[in-house]
């Protein structure tokens, strides 16, 4: 599998990323203008601009265009899947009321926080 050697602006490390873990992002006319990957060192999503010649080389190396099932920025099997139910209108109202409190942040970060406004 081809790898792309690049640097991460977040952790400032030189990293090798599998071409299958990168996605080419297109411009308004579909022309590739950037590629994206998740840094294997720090886990941050990274977006790097590319010129047309570099984009052609990346596509030839196996970098896929963004979107669809193969998008490396949207793993199909995340390690920590979300198990919470979707937000309801009542949840949003409760959250809004909570944000009106002066101590909203400490309330949300306390180990016994239920999320319900008092």
Shape: elongated
Number of strands: 6
Run of helices and strands = EEEEEHEHH
What's the helical proportion of residues? 10-25%
Which sequence of strands runs across the widest sheet? 5-4-3-6
Please report the distance between the alpha carbons of the first and last residues: 55 Å
Count of helix runs: 3
Largest sheet: 4 strands, mixed
Q: Segments where pLDDT lies below 50 for 5+ residues?
A: none
- Provide the gyration radius in Å: 20 Å
Assign the structural class, choosing from mainly alpha, mainly beta, alpha/beta, alpha+beta, or little secondary structure. Answer: alpha+beta
Strand content bin: 15-25%
Give the integer mean of the pLDDT values. Answer: 79
Could you characterize what this model shows?
With 118 residues, the protein is α+β, with helices and mostly antiparallel strands. The chain has a domain at 3-65. It has three helices and six strands, in the order E-E-E-E-E-H-E-H-H. Strands 5-4-3-6 form a four-stranded mixed sheet, with helices on one face. It starts with a strand and ends in a 9-residue tail after the last helix.
């Amino acid at each position: 599998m081809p790898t792309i050697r690049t640097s991460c602006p977040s952790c400032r490390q030189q990293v090798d990323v599998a071409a299958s873990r990168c996605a080419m992002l297109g411009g308004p006319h579909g022309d590739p203008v950037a590629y994206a990957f998740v840094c294997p060192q720090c886990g941050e999503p990274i977006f790097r601009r590319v010129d047309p010649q570099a984009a052609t080389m990346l596509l030839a190396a196996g970098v896929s265009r963004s979107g669809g099932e193969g998008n490396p920025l949207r793993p199909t099997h995340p390690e920590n899947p979300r198990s919470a139910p979707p937000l309801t209108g009542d949840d949003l109202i409760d959250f809004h009321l909570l944000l009106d409190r002066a101590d909203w942040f400490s309330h949300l970060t306390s180990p016994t926080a239920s999320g319900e406004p008092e």
